Amino acid sequence: MARSLLRWRLSSPVPPKLRDSMICSDCLKLDINICSHVFAGLRCLSTFQRSGKPDLTDLTHPHTWYPVARRKKRNIFLHVGPTNSGKTYNALKSLETSSSGVYCGPLRLLAWEVAQRLNRANVPCNLITGQEREEIDGAKHSSVTVEMADVTSEYQCAVIDEIQMVGCRTRGFSFTRALLGIASDELHLCGDPAAVPLIQRILEVTGDVIKVQHYERLSPLIPLKYPLGSFSDIRKGDCIVTFSRREIYKLKKKVEITGKHLCSVVYGSLPPETRTKQAKMFNDESSEFDVLVASDAIGMGLNLNISRIIFSTMKKFDGVCTRDLTIPEIKQIAGRAGRYGSNFPTGEVTCIDAEDLPLLHSSLESSSPLIERAGLFPTFDLLSLYSRLHSKAGLYNILEQFLKKAKLSPDYFIADYEEILKVAAVVDELPLGLYDKYLFCISPVDMNDEIAAQGLTQFAENYAKKGIVQLREIFTPGRLQVPKSQNSLKELESVHKVLDLYVWLSFRMEDSFPDCELASSQKAICSLLIEEFLERLGWQRQLKGNFQQNSFSLQQKAQSSMLRKYFPQVLVDSQIELTKD
Ligand SMILES: Nc1ncnc2c1ncn2[C@@H]1O[C@H](COP(=O)(O)OP(=O)(O)OP(=O)(O)O)[C@@H](O)[C@H]1O
């Protein structure tokens, strides 16, 4: 065994988190010809070639990339059912009683919630996301965002939440990696029944034992036969759903102008901390913010006491075109009404327009279409090996080759490289090594956001030029202010994304991105300023002129040492122009 171990080594020195696959070093010496080497029941990657040189773009055996998991016969429990049926609750009970374990969720909010829950239950639990690492002494449990799942450690119990996201165009590959790679005796998968046949097929080759547990909704959900009627019929606990920031603020104004309610807002580009605070304010019985206006960002990750979901539209712009909402989207959003054990245990759902009701009703009665394929992305080892054989190819070309030539089994689809290719095009212009380029490519940047894309370009250019990126060289801390309009709000949300990206990079290249603390505190300030804007953007408050009574005032926030340190001038600018929209 010792000798075989020696024969196997990683193809390149990469950080442990990326060591997903192993390449046979003998094959490398032999110019990767046919290899018969076997280790721990796994064949060398090159044996998948029957003749000639291996096609490294062949991604048909991804289960072989995870040798630690393959050494186990895992007991897999698939908890499937509608939202609010107790799937996660049951999976987490197993995690809580295990001797070691990991929770993998799709959102930082979910990872935070689970870490808090375990720590409260006296199970020390680390929190690890792309941008934060809170390690607890002696912890044998971790709560992580799925991209951070460690596929080299062994656990007694693991949970992957929202497993139907294996089919997600952009993030599916991270779920596939966790599904195939987590080395745990027990693996609990929670999600939509639509993912069951695919997961069963994918796991056929792993030798794991699979048990499916079906769940029913814990509280009733009633689709109403009538539409909203008028905005004066809005009541406490309602959540109006729409899909653009502009619409969210329009609807907020329409509700608040009736003089009866104030609205919290939740949408994707708000910082997660801000989303949580808005949700808390909405849930808080004593708060005036008793109505929620939100996008589909409420579908996952937030505990919300919603009585009735009201769809303002059944169409959504998905980055390419405006299309009808899909059945799973409608079910996921509608399912947020009526939370088990909350003040509104019976949920209701309706639309603003009567003509949208048929689509709502038919969707809620239908089962979600089966998920047919899971996302996949080559490991860094594969990319690196390919690059050694094609030394002139840039990362953009390498990825294109994988896209074009990948011989995929019907169970997998190649991850949507569109965003990744945009970054590859930027970093290929710079004198950077493959690993650095790879890191920039998998960073959480939104290249459709102009400011965020500029931020990434600057970081990559400065890093290539000097090897170190001081935050102050490209960002002047003292300039942040409470937004005065929706445009400046949008800008501040983008600045938050850039700072978030800096923090993400600093976790991976600590010496080269040394200002993690400064970036984190600036991020927190962005969130505070955005929250201040949202709280003051109350039309009823404007009419009553009671800004001064705002208990969560900017003045108070400015007392915090963080604000005093970086933002003395924030105190000066305490007036805000309400948007004219
Ligand atoms: N047996 C139980 N006892 C007490 N509370 C429960 C129980 N089962 C579920 N709950 C509570 O009901 C709510 C919904 O449960 P849970 O989040 O597990 O549902 P889910 O099916 O995973 O929903 P989603 O798909 O939205 O994540 C949670 O607040 C959870 O704490």
From TrEMBL:
<dbReference type="InterPro" id="IPR055206">
    <property type="entry name" value="DEXQc_SUV3"/>
</dbReference>
<keyword id="KW-0809">Transit peptide</keyword>
<keyword id="KW-0347">Helicase</keyword>
<keyword id="KW-0378">Hydrolase</keyword>
<dbReference type="InterPro" id="IPR022192">
    <property type="entry name" value="SUV3_C"/>
</dbReference>
<dbReference type="Pfam" id="PF22527">
    <property type="entry name" value="DEXQc_Suv3"/>
</dbReference>
<keyword id="KW-0539">Nucleus</keyword>
<dbReference type="GO" id="GO:0005634">
    <property type="term" value="C:nucleus"/>
</dbReference>
<dbReference type="Pfam" id="PF12513">
    <property type="entry name" value="SUV3_C"/>
</dbReference>
<feature type="domain" description="Helicase C-terminal">
    <location>
        <begin position="210"/>
        <end position="384"/>
    </location>
</feature>
<keyword id="KW-1135">Mitochondrion nucleoid</keyword>
<dbReference type="GO" id="GO:0016787">
    <property type="term" value="F:hydrolase activity"/>
</dbReference>
<keyword id="KW-0496">Mitochondrion</keyword>
<dbReference type="GO" id="GO:0003724">
    <property type="term" value="F:RNA helicase activity"/>
</dbReference>
<dbReference type="InterPro" id="IPR001650">
    <property type="entry name" value="Helicase_C-like"/>
</dbReference>
<dbReference type="GO" id="GO:0000965">
    <property type="term" value="P:mitochondrial RNA 3'-end processing"/>
</dbReference>
<protein>
    <recommendedName>
        <fullName>RNA helicase</fullName>
        <ecNumber>3.6.4.13</ecNumber>
    </recommendedName>
</protein>
<keyword id="KW-0067">ATP-binding</keyword>
<comment type="subunit">
    <text>Homodimer; in free form. Component of the mitochondrial degradosome (mtEXO) complex which is a heteropentamer containing 2 copies of SUPV3L1 and 3 copies of PNPT1.</text>
</comment>
<dbReference type="InterPro" id="IPR050699">
    <property type="entry name" value="RNA-DNA_Helicase"/>
</dbReference>
<dbReference type="InterPro" id="IPR044774">
    <property type="entry name" value="Suv3_DEXQc"/>
</dbReference>
<dbReference type="GO" id="GO:0042645">
    <property type="term" value="C:mitochondrial nucleoid"/>
</dbReference>
<dbReference type="Pfam" id="PF18147">
    <property type="entry name" value="Suv3_C_1"/>
</dbReference>
<dbReference type="InterPro" id="IPR027417">
    <property type="entry name" value="P-loop_NTPase"/>
</dbReference>
<dbReference type="GO" id="GO:0005524">
    <property type="term" value="F:ATP binding"/>
</dbReference>
<dbReference type="Pfam" id="PF00271">
    <property type="entry name" value="Helicase_C"/>
</dbReference>
<keyword id="KW-0547">Nucleotide-binding</keyword>
<dbReference type="GO" id="GO:0045025">
    <property type="term" value="C:mitochondrial degradosome"/>
</dbReference>
<dbReference type="InterPro" id="IPR041082">
    <property type="entry name" value="Suv3_C_1"/>
</dbReference>
